[in-house]
Specification:
About 40% of the residues are buried. The N and C termini lie far apart (about 70 Å). The protein is built from eleven helices and ten strands. Helix 3 packs parallel to helix 4, helix 6 packs across helix 7 and helix 7 runs antiparallel to helix 8. It is elongated and about 70 Å long. The chain has about 280 residues and is of the alpha/beta class. A five-stranded parallel β-sheet has the order 3-2-4-1-5. Strands 6-7-10-8-9 form a five-stranded mixed β-sheet. The protein binds S-adenosylmethionine. The site of S-adenosylmethionine has 24 residues, from helix 5, strand 7, strand 8 and strand 10.
């Protein structure tokens, strides 16, 4: 019987092409085909390095359907690679369904590690990095975003968020309302690219800088936010608990008012939308 192939999960650069590792190049050049989020984008990357391999589109809309067929190819002995448009596949990118299907089928899945925007930002933030929670993208709708942030306000681990240019100002505004203007944070923009900028300060200061300078609203962003301090925690946690319970029965602003009164937490921290 033919021994199964390997599914290689290959990280690609988040900006600077020099960050594609020699092993990534070796693996990409050797596999039977490369599953890519956007085949045009990956073709350009490959051609920059003089590589040409068959490409298969694998994105959030077809991943479930494609997984079975790809696993059959792997089981038949072909090795495949998975890449995303930038950075590490599966990190706010497609891939976990394929990886799960491959693992269930007993196919070897092997990583070729490399760039990841979240880890790159954390590595330069100067914010406690021993325990952190990666939150990916916040919800696009403001109500859902504020609710998510209200639930995170008492989190003591460092928080890492991804954000896009068109929502960075709005999200920073909601973060200030939920976590307070003084919460230390780092905004990492365009990492490894020409206009790389790493700003630090309180969330309120970061919002002011982004609001004042249109250049600071361009490109791709990672926001690293310090976790809640131990003192603030107890009141905030109690406030959050009460708010979530009360908001099942009352309008959010009334629930926040009552929860703030009962717990001693700031009403703004419980419900960024109200005041
Ligand atoms: N898989 C990727 C990784 O490993 O980082 C992330 C893909 S996610 C769809 C894209 C988001 O990652 C962007 O919206 C931005 O928040 C962040 N990002 C990607 N490249 C970046 C860069 N060079 N500088 C800052 N943030 C970046």
């Amino acid at each position: 019987m033919q021994s199964p192939g390997t599914l290689h999960i290959v990280a690609t650069p988040i900006g600077n092409l020099g960050d594609l590792s020699p092993r990534a190049l070796e693996v990409l050049g050797a596999v039977g085909a490369i599953c890519a989020e956007d085949t045009r984008h990956t073709r350009q990357l490959l051609s920059h390095f003089g590589l040409e391999r068959p490409l298969l589109a694998l994105h959030q809309h077809n991943e479930e359907a494609q997984a079975e067929q790809l696993v059959a190819r792997l089981q038949a002995g072909e090795s495949l690679a998975l890449v995303s448009d930038a950075g590490t596949p599966l990190v706010s990118d497609p891939g976990f369904r394929l990886v799960r299907a491959a693992r269930v089928a007993g196919v070897r899945v092997s990583p070729v590690p490399g760039a990841c925007a979240a880890i790159a930002a954390l590595s330069v933030a100067g914010i406690a990095s021993d325990r952190f929670a990666f939150e990916g993208f916040l919800p696009a709708k403001s109500g859902a975003r504020r609710e998510r942030l209200a639930r995170l306000a008492a989190e003591s681990r460092t928080l890492i968020f991804y954000e896009s240019a068109h929502r960075i100002e709005e999200s920073l505004g909601d973060l200030v309302a939920a976590f307070g203007a003084d919460r230390p944070a780092v905004l990492a923009r365009e990492l490894t690219k020409l206009f790389e900028t790493v700003l630090d300060g309180g969330l309120g200061q970061l919002l002011e800088r982004v609001a004042a300078d249109p250049n600071q609203r361009k490109g791709e962003f990672v926001l690293v936010v310090e976790g809640a301090g131990e003192d603030a925690d107890a009141r905030l946690i109690e406030g959050q608990r009460l708010y979530l319970k009360l908001s099942e029965h009352l309008p959010p602003s009334t629930a926040a008012k009552l929860a703030a009164e009962l717990s001693g937490a700031s009403r703004k921290a419980l419900y960024g939308g109200g005041s």
